[in-house]
Amino acid sequence: MTQVTVKELAQVVATPVERLLQQMREAGLPHTSAEQVVTDVEKQALLAHLKSSHGAKAEEPRKITLQRKTTSTLRVAGSKTISVEVRKKKTFVKRSPEEIEAEQKREAEERRAEEEAVRLKAEAEARERAEAEARRQAEAVKSGADASLVAAVTAEPVIAEVPVVDAAAERKKEEVRRQEKARSDEDERRDRKHAQHRPSLKEKEKAPAPRVAPRSTDEESDGFRRGGRGGKAKLKKRNQHGFQNPTGPIVREVAIGETITVSELAQQMAVKGAEIVKFMFKMGTPVTINQVLDQETAQLVAEEFGHKVKLVSDNALEEQLAESLKFEGESFHRAPVVTVMGHVDHGKTSLLDYIRRAKVASGEAGGITQHIGAYHVETDRGMVTFLDTPGHAAFTQMRARGAKATDIVILVVAADDGVMPQTQEAVQHAKAAGVPIVVAVNKMDKPEANPDNIKNGLAALDVIPEEWGGDAPFVPVSAKAGTGIDELLEAVLLQAEVLELKATPSAPGRGVVVESRLDKGRGPVATVLVQDGTLRQGDMVLVGVNYGRVRAMLDENGKSIKEAGPSIPVEILGLDGTPDAGDEMMVVADEKKAREVALFRQGKFREVKLARAHAGKLENIFETMGQEEKKTLNIVLKSDVRGSLEALQGSLSGLGNDEVQVRVVGGGVGGITESDANLALASNAVLFGFNVRADAGARKIVEAEGLDMRYYNVIYDIIEDVKKALTGMLGSDVRENILGIAEVRDVFRSPKFGAVAGCMVVEGVVYRNRPIRVLREDVVIFEGELESLRRFKDDVAEVRNGMECGIGVKSYNDVKVGDKIEVFEKVQVARSL
Ligand code: GDP
Predict the structure, then answer these.
(1) 349 is in an annotated binding site
(2) Disordered: where is this region (predicted)?
(3) What is the CA 645 to chain-centroid distance, rounded?
C-alpha cells in the first residue's frame, strides 16, 4: 500500500486524524480533509518534518542507579521448572509526570518515524536487489553456454527463467509465471482504482512510488521472462521513467514455527492468502485462509514460492515471551500462601471457615457470599493467604501442572483420631514438593484429645516436632472454639520469614489459576493468585491456553478492585475461556502477542499431551532423565493391605545399583485416588495398584495425562517389571566385533585413489562399508573407513578369507607392506542389573 488516504495513514501510525492533519499542515502539506490521498513524497516530507521537530531534547534529569537481583522460575518441558537468577544494574531517571508524558509521546512518534524509515529503506533495497538480479539475468543468458552455470550458483527462484530443459524447472517456471500474472493483474486493478482518486496521473509518474516486494506490471514481467532476448532493452526503457520496479521475485526469509496459519504465511511471503489457497488446492489439499498448517507443509509451500525458510524452534515463541516479561524493580517481602491439608473430618473446612470468619477484613458481617477458593487474612504480624479448595486438589493439581503456588502446608490432624491415610498422603505431597509443614493439632477441646499420639505418628513419617529437635511446629488448636488460631498463624508467619519470600510489586502481574468456572451471566471467571508483580484491571493477560483483557476484578468478598499485588487472590473476568487450575497467568504487552501464544499453546496442547504420555510410560521414563547422576524410577504404590505394601516397598527399594534406583514417592493402603494420580504426574512416576483399582477421578487423570498405571496381583510380577524398567534405564554397552583382517602385501599408487593396498584377507570377511583400523606391528596407527574395495577391476562389497583384494583407505596414504587392516562393527549390548 503506497498510496493511502490521510485517514488510513492515521490508522497505520495510530494517531488521531486531526493531529495528523495538524502535523501535515506544519510540514507544509496541503491536506485538509481525512479523505485526501497522501503520496510517498508527501509521506517522506512529513517524516522529515517530524524528525526535525523532535531534535531538541529536555535537559538531563537526575539519575539513580540501582543494582538488583531477581529470581524467577522458567517453565520448560511440561512440568519441569528451572529457577533463573538475574543480576542486573539499572539506571532510573527521575522525571516529572509532564516530562514522562511528553517523553512517551516523543518516543512513540520517533518509533513511528523510525519504522517508516526502515520500511522505506527496505523497499529501496528490494528495488536495488531486483535490478541487480535483472542485470545478471540478462548477462547470463547473453553468454548462452554459461546459463546453466549461473543457474547453478543462483539459489533464488530466478533459475526458472534460464532456458534449461528440465521438467522440474519448467513446472517452477510455470508457477512463477502464474504468480506474477496474478500479482500484476492485481497491480493493474489497484492502479486503476487509485487513478480515480488521484488529483493527477502525471504526479504519479514523477513520484518514486516504491512498491512492496515482487510486484511488477505485465510489461515488466514480460521483459524479465524473455531474459536475454529483451531484458536489456526493457530495462533501458524502464529507466526512462526515472524509477525502477522490482524485476524478479524477492526472496524473503519466512519464519515458520511449529504451526502457522495460511494467512500468516501469506503475510510473511507478501502474497495474498488466496494464492496459497489456490496453490494448495492445485496440490490436492484444499485449505482455508485461517487454517493452521504444520511446519513441514508450510515449509514446502514457502519453498515452492521461492522463499528461504527459517524454522523457528518449538519454544521460540514462549522464550520470546519469557524474554519480554523480564522485569527489574525493587523486591519486597510477600505474604506466604498456605494450603490446608489433612484427613477427612479432621477439621480442614472448620479451620478455614473459622479463620475466614474471624480474620477476613470484610466490612459487613455475613458479607461473604461467594466462595472464591482463596482468601487472605491480615494479622498483627502480617498477611497470610489461604488457598481454600476442597481435598488436596489445590495442591496436587497445581503441582502436577508444574505450578508452585503453596509456600507452606498446614497439616490438620484431629487430636482425638491420630495419623490417618490422608494425613500420610498429605505428608507425601508436601515432602515431594519440598514445602514446609506446620501441624495444626485440632479438636483440642475434646476430652479424648491426645496430642502426643499425633507427635509420635507424624514423627514416624519424618515430620519431627520442633521440641524434639525437628523443624515442624506443632500447634494445638480448636477450630470449633477458636483457640490457638493466632498461634497457628504466628507459626506460619515464622516459617515464612525463614523462607524469605520476595516479590516485585512494580512488575507486570504474574500468577497462577486456583480455579475457574463458567458463570452464566459473567462468562468465564477465573480465581487467580497473583504471585508476583501487580495485576490491574484492563491488563491483557495470557492464562494457559486462554487470554483476554481483565474486564473486572473482584476480591474474596466480591468487591470490585482495581489492582492486586503479590499473594493476593482475585477473581478475574474477561477471559475467552476457562483455564485449568495450575495454569500460569501473565500480563502481556498486547493482544496480538497474547493471542499468538495462546493459539500456539492450543496447538501445542495435543502434542504436549502425547509427549507426556510417551514420557510417562515405564519403558520410556529412563529417556527423560539422561542428565541426572543416578537415574531414579519413581513409583506411586497402592496396595490392599499394609503387609503387602510393606513387603513391596522393601523389595522395590532394594532394587537398583549405583546407577539406577527406585523411589516409592507415594504409597498407601486403599484404591488409587485422584490425589495419587496427581502425585504420580507431578513426580513423573508410574502408578502401581496391588490388588486395588483406580477410582473414576484417578482414571480420568491417568487417561488425560497418559500416565502409566498397572494393576498387579502377584508381587513377583511387579518386581520383574520394575527390574526390566531399571535394566532399560541402565542403557547399553557398546561392544566391538572384529569381522575380518586383511594383510597388506603390496602398495600401488593410483592417481584416482592415492595409495591402494594390495591385500590378502587372512581372517573373516572384509566389508566395504564398515569402520576399519590400520595396525602396524599390532599397534593401531589409524582409524577410519575404506575408500574402495576391489577384486581385480571390480568394486565389491565384501571379500572373504583367503582372497586377494585392493583396498583404498580414506585419508590415509602412508600404507606399508605388512600393515594389517582390521574391519570391525560396533554392537549395542543391553546391560543388566
Ligand atoms: P474436613 O473434612 O477436614 O473439612 O473436616 P470438617 O471441618 O468438615 O470437620 C469435621 C467435623 O469435625 C465437623 O463436624 C466439625 O464440626 C468437627 N470439628 C472440626 N473442628 C473441630 C474442633 O476443633 N473441635 C471439635 N470438637 N469438633 C471439630
Answers:
(1) yes
(2) 94-131, 170-248
(3) 40
Q: What nine digits make up the cell of 289? A: 485462509
Distances (CA, A) of 105 to 101, 109, 203, 486: 6, 6, 34, 52
What integer is the mean pLDDT of 370-375? 72
Identify the CA nearest to 833 among candidates 656, 658, 650, 622: 656
Query: Rounded distance, CA 694 to CA 671, Å?
Result: 6
Residue 276 and residue 178: Cα distance in Å, rounded?
12
Q: What does the pLDDT read at residue 566?
A: 94
Q: pLDDT band at residue 216, thresholds of 50, 70 and 90?
A: very low
Rounded to an integer, what distance in angstroms lies between the CA atom of residue 706 and that of residue 701?
Answer: 8
What is the DSSP track for 709-742? EEEES-HHHHHHHHHHHHHHHH-EEEEEEEEEEE
Residue 760 near residue 804 (C-beta atoms within 8 A): yes
Identify the CA nearest to 231 among candidates 244, 220, 216.
220
The vertex-63 CA angle with 62 and 64, nearest 5°, equals 130
Set out the domains of the chain in order of their start, with CATH numbers: 4-65 (no CATH), 253-311 (1.10.10), 335-500 (3.40.50.300), 627-729 (3.40.50.10050), 732-830 (2.40.30.10)
Round to whole Å and give the CA distance between 108 and 114.
Answer: 10
Please give the single-letter amino acid code of residue 571.
E
* 29 grid coordinates: 502539506
**Residue of the CA atom closest to atom 10 of ligand 1:** 345
Over residues 35-44, the mean pLDDT reads 82
Query: How many angstroms does the Cα of residue 318 sit away from the middle of ligand 1?
Result: 45
Are the C-beta atoms of residues 278 and 284 closer than 8 Å to each other? Answer: no
Tens digits of residue pLDDT in 606-619? 554 544 444 455 55
Pocket lined around ligand 1, Cβ cut-off 6 Å: 342, 344-350, 442-443, 445-446, 478-480
Ligand 1 atom at minimal distance to the Cα of residue 446? 26
Which pTM does this prediction carry?
0.48
Ligand 1 nearest atom to the CA of residue 477, by list position: 23
> Any known ligand binding at 389?
yes
